[in-house]
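Async update (no meeting this week)

Hi team, since we skipped the sync, here's where things stand on the single-chain job. The sequence we agreed to prioritize is pasted below, unchanged from the tracker. I ran it this morning and attached the output directly underneath so nobody has to dig for it. Comments welcome in thread, and please keep replies under the output.
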Amino acid sequence: MAVVAIMLTSCLGKTETPGTGDPQAEAPNEAKDLPAAFGELLKSGNAEGLFALVGSVQEKAVSFIKENPAKAKEYLETAQTFLKENAAKISELVGSISDSDMAGRAQELIKSVSEQPVDQLLGLVGIASDQIGEAQDAAADAAEGAKETVEGAVEGAKQAASDAVEGAKQAASDAANNAVEGAKGAVNDAVNKAADAAQGAVNDLLKK
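Output:
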């Protein structure tokens, strides 16, 4: 069951037909339309498309499992019925895939979906759904954490710049005040010296 769960998870979210790069035909939303979708691929001999459709069916089942388990069960039962009834043709067709690794994975997945009791299969799909939800939540948390880190860094940089400006303004103010005080001191010294010189000259005149 663990192996099947891993396989189901790995098949979810595919947007391309394995090995071809061609867009994957999305599985129909209604269970009643599944036989026609499978039948068309089987009739045209599209083995990779058939393999891809099984993966798309799993994806659809995941989308149904949370809100409508009954629909998810009907959906998987319908797919399973078709795969069982056409097992020989499907096995022969999938076995013709040129990529032996892909052919093996396709055979194993289709066999598992065909033979696994639907209730068990439904449970595995639910597990896969939970795993996807957890991964999405973790990604969202990581993104939010990164956003907060960037915002914190920006605010820190703004504060540092503001502090630097304030420091520069204070330093300039201090320098100006020191210059004014120095000028005042120099003027006072000059005035005092002039006063002393004048007083000395007056004293000299008085002595004479």
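Quick observations from my side:
Residues 3 and 77 are 20 Å apart (CA to CA).
The mean pLDDT is 75.
Reply here if anything looks off.
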